[in-house]
Amino acid sequence: MTSSMIEIEKLTKRYGTTEALKSLSFQVPKGQVVGFLGPNGAGKSTTMRILAGYALPTSGTAKVGGIDVTVDPVAARRRIGYLPENNPLYEEMMVLDFLGFIAEARQIPAAQRKERIRSAIERCGLQPAFNKDIGQLSKGFRQRVGLAQAILHEPDLLILDEPTSGLDPNQIVEIRSLIKQLGQEKTVILSTHILSEVQSTCSRVLIINDGALVADDSPEHLVSDGAGGSVSVIVTSRTGTPLDPQLTAAILRQVPGVSQVEPSEAEGSDSLGFRLRYSNEDPRRALFEAAVKNDLVLLEVKRTQASLEDTFRKLTTAEKRAA
Q1: 88, 81, 85, 87: which is closest to 46 by C-alpha?
Q2: DSSP for residue 134
Q3: DSSP letter for each residue of 199-255
Q4: Distance between CA 241 and CA 218 in Å, rounded?
Q5: In 72-137, which residue ranges form alpha helices assigned H by DSSP?
Q6: Among 131, 122, 126, which Cα is nearest to 96's?
Q7: Which architecture characterizes domain 228-305 according to CATH?
Q8: 4-219, CATH topology level
């Protein structure tokens, strides 16, 4: 039996002359929580819709638990819990009745439905709302209902498309916590524009752009190896003579690893401030050596590592420029 929960091989999807997916390939092992990132129109939702059986690929294969979603879509859907971005719900129904309807549609045996519904309500924190109409609920509770219907049949894979879209900060924290709990039990693929959400919940990040995979790594490695970061420095002269801003900036540009030097705030008239950007290698050791060599005193050195947002922007904009 396959150890991969998701297997996508050379997946291509065309809408007329538009190629939404371009020979996309990746695998997700069982038990992994994956952040699926990309700018608008990159192909994230198309990929998720194909996995969930709501769209057909033009070519290539998509498998869930070893089952080809186009060959046996019913069997594949039994393995999947899907929460689409718009989270369609019957607002006139009570939460309890809606989950009962979903349990019947999912063909959960009648003897198990009551326990499955109780478990989903408890795990999704719906106790205060289970006897209310869905139309009366806040957006946060509606998302909880969407998650409850997605896990009701105990799927092996959860596909979550923008699960915190439109929520306020408190609701985002609540749903994020719930997703982390579900990730301890199931394989999860999560699409979101909130990159801090990926860093806090996912062990792996896939980034696609223009229908193609441009990055596949852990959040930590993407941050450390992707966009580098910056070092803020305040310098003064060891001899007490005034520093020339252009000459000092030229010295800092020669430091190995530094890719850009920008003026920044200083501490007084006898000091200069700069922000040094770097791509890969941390330049601080070389910076100290350059300061000694050029009779500079470093009054302050502060490194800011690149964020996942920096890496995301670098990867997606670089791909667009290359295209």
Answers
A1: 85
A2: G
A3: HHH-SEEEEEETTEEEEEE-HHHHHHHSS-EEEEEEEEESSSPPPPHHHHHHHHHTS
A4: 48
A5: 73-78, 95-105, 110-123
A6: 131
A7: 2-Layer Sandwich (3.30)
A8: Rossmann fold (3.40.50)
Which of helix, strand or coil describes residue 196? helix
User: What are the per-10-residue average pLDDT scores of the chain (323 residues)?
Assistant: 85 94 95 91 92 93 95 94 90 96 95 95 91 93 93 94 84 84 89 82 92 89 67 93 94 92 89 88 91 95 78 70 47
> What Rg, from alpha-carbon coordinates, does the chain have?
25
What are the structural domain ranges in the chain?
Answer: 4-219, 228-305
Nearest CA-CA partner of 294 in 231, 249, 259: 249
Contact 228, 304 (CB under 8 A): no
**Residue 97 CB burial class (10 angstroms; 0-12, 13-18, ≥19):** middle
Residue 175 bridge partners (DSSP): none
Question: What phi and psi values does residue 291 have, to the nearest 5 degrees?
Answer: -65, -45
Q: Measured between alpha carbons, how far is 108 from 298 in angstroms, rounded to an integer? A: 68
What are the tokens at 83? 């929460």
